[in-house]
């Protein structure tokens, strides 16, 4: 595959700046989160947004669908939600003079699916998303149905400490490219919200680009060059998340999967495009690594008791894993 040219990247970066500005008019004071959401979508990944209720997670997702003019549907996850409520169900109808079951698509059949408060649904319903997120299709009564492309699941969840929540299983967490943590607003941002928002009204945003233009951007991301040295850094960084005789990784019980390395490579290329570069860099990897890894590593009991978190362990790994692997000195190479 040929690499993206500087002209193509510059034009794409201009579109993406407009998209970024539009999202910043929807969600105030969350510039870093917004760039990561754009990065994840350009990398064709699903995104998990975690934060307390009322911080704008839902508005961010709805604003993104309006700016891109893509079909979106929202599913409010509740304990009584059934798998068929999101995938769709066969319905008995009269066809050509006889009654037969006809599949009626559920809300998963959209370009952007907002899975609101996903961790309030039962594990059985959560698992119904697995095939859709990985295969971009659903299977009902043995029959497969392809989902529209592009297809993204942007899920929100409340912190597990809140009552009435069910932790997502590791297999489903691994399907999310990013896990983003939305923090509370500072005083200046709250003042801006109070001055420019009315309770019960949605932010007004206009379409930024066509679906065709967005599809071209998705294709361009794949043509961003990933240098071998950066690919090697990604491999060593993911490998460092597995238990090894080092102070940082000794706190980890289970490390990240190969899917994490692929996610990191795709996200690094997407971030490079956003910043108008034809090559992914070490800095791109460092910028997106916490979002890729924080939901893919499991700390051991002692680390959690000592107050360590996935974020703190990842920060140590990023500080200790060098950009380039040190070559073995010639005098130490076996004859």
Number of strands: 11
Helix content: 40-55%
CATH topology of the domain at 224-323: Helicase, Ruva Protein, domain 3
Arrangement of strands in the largest sheet:
2-5-8-1-9
- What are the segments in which pLDDT stays under 50 over at least 5 consecutive residues? 328-335
The H/E string reads: HHEHEHEEEHHEEEHEHHHEHHEHH
Largest beta-sheet characterization: 5 strands, parallel
SS-derived structural category: alpha/beta
How would you state the average pLDDT, rounded? Answer: 84
Radius of gyration, in angstroms, nearest whole number: 22 Å
CATH class designation of the domain at 224-323: Mainly Alpha
Q: Give me the CATH superfamily of the domain at 224-323.
A: Magnesium chelatase subunit I, C-Terminal domain
Strand percent estimate: 15-25%
Per CATH, which architecture of the domain at 224-323? Answer: Orthogonal Bundle
What does this structure look like?
This is AAA family ATPase. InterPro entries: AAA+_ATPase, ATPase_AAA-3, CbbQ/NirQ/NorQ/GpvN, ChlI/MoxR_AAA_lid, ClpA/B, P-loop_NTPase. Pfam families: AAA_3, AAA_lid_2. With 335 residues, the protein is of the alpha/beta class. It has a domain of 100 residues: Helicase, Ruva Protein, domain 3. Helices cover 43% and strands 17% of the residues. The protein contains 14 helices and eleven strands. Strands 2-5-8-1-9 form a five-stranded parallel β-sheet. A two-stranded antiparallel ribbon has the order 3-4. Strands 6-7 form a two-stranded antiparallel ribbon. Strand 6 and strand 7 form a beta hairpin. It is globular. The two termini are 40 Å apart. The relative contact order is 0.15.
């Amino acid at each position: 595959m040929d690499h993206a040219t500087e002209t193509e990247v510059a034009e794409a970066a201009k579109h993406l700046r407009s998209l970024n500005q539009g999202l910043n008019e929807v969600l105030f004071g969350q510039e870093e989160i917004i760039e990561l959401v754009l990065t994840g979508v350009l990398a064709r990944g699903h995104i998990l947004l975690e934060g307390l209720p009322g911080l704008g997670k839902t508005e961010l997702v709805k604003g993104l669908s309006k700016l891109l003019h893509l079909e979106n549907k929202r599913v409010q996850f509740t304990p009584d939600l059934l798998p068929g409520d999101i995938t769709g169900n066969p319905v008995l109808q009269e066809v050509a003079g006889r009654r037969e079951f006809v599949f009626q698509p559920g809300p998963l059949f959209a370009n952007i699916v907002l899975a609101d408060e996903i961790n309030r649904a039962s594990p059985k319903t959560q698992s119904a998303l697995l095939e859709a997120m990985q295969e971009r299709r659903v299977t009902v009564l043995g029959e497969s149905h392809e989902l529209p492309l592009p297809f993204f699941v942007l899920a929100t969840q409340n912190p597990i400490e809140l009552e009435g929540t069910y932790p997502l299983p590791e297999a489903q967490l691994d399907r999310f490219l990013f896990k983003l943590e939305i923090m509370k607003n500072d005083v200046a941002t709250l003042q801006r919200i109070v001055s420019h928002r009315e309770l019960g009204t949605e932010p007004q945003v206009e379409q930024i680009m066509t679906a065709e233009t967005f599809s071209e951007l998705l294709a361009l991301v794949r043509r961003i060059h990933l240098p071998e040295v950066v690919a090697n850094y990604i491999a060593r960084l993911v490998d460092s998340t597995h238990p090894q005789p080092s102070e940082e990784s000794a706190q980890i019980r289970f490390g990240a999967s190969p899917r994490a390395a692929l996610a990191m490579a795709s996200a690094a290329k997407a971030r490079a495009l956003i910043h108008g570069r034809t090559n992914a860099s070490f800095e791109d990897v460092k910028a997106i690594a916490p979002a890729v890894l924080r939901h893919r590593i499991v700390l051991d009991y002692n680390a959690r008791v000592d107050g360590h978190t996935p974020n703190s362990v990842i920060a140590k790994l990023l500080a200790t894993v060098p950009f380039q692997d040190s070559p073995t000195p010639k005098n130490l190479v076996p004859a």
